[in-house]
């Protein structure tokens, strides 16, 4: 019973972060399942089954708050489902250990760009409103879906920073569209796992616990993302991407850093992240004050 409660709390926390920042539900939940001895395929299958429910509720909440661009959902969600099915089907015979550090380097570069761009200049507006093309979203969806299934998470960490870096879709709609399209990815991945490993290794109780926590958090996260200023949200997402992928690199065979080195690097990242978010909050408040001061005084009513 204690394990189920813990899983429900993990599901709640993971979905709160995922729904607010566009990533982390799968990575967080899968990490816990692996830590308690679940094999990779069963862990990923469990998480994706729970995500069918959490992404449905999260997508509905994001739609309710106006955070979804349905054209983006269709263009990235369908190829994402194809990639997820392929990744789930072949997980037992494919290893992503070599590709993981390389992917982390790419994502780390995107995270640095996003953190710097949003913190220094705010929301990129040069391309804002321009359509996101199929030639960009289709391969992005295929790669993100495949990584998501084989790694137990990755749809958000791959999709969110790539779309944010394009500067064509505001942060809240990027996050809402990624969360909503993940419903298709979760269904396809779950079907792939049923084909690949069957249902014997999947603990239904764990699925329900993760789902329960996620369902509670989904509408709260959708409300939060609508009310967090884009500049602050971009800085927050950028920092999370940097932290997540630095952790992957430091633990990889490429570096295999000691605990002391890892902790020192994490401390520096946390400090820089907190500074960037604080700066973005102050810059947003200053911009609001300047805009209010520039408004012409209302003319007195005529008698």
UniProtKB/TrEMBL annotation:
| Residue intervals passing through the bilayer | 99-120, 181-198, 204-225, 232-252, 264-281
Q: Which UniProt keywords apply?
A: Cell membrane, Membrane, Transmembrane, Transmembrane helix
4Fe-4S listed as a keyword: no
Asked whether the UniProt record includes Membrane among its keywords, one would answer yes
Cross-referenced InterPro entries = TM_pro_TauE-like (IPR002781), TSUP/Inactive_protease-like (IPR051598)
Membrane disposition: Multi-pass membrane protein
Indicate where this protein resides in the cell: Cell membrane; Membrane
Give the family this protein belongs to, as stated in its UniProt record: Belongs to the 4-toluene sulfonate uptake permease (TSUP) (TC 2.A.102) family.
Supply the name of the protein.
Probable membrane transporter protein
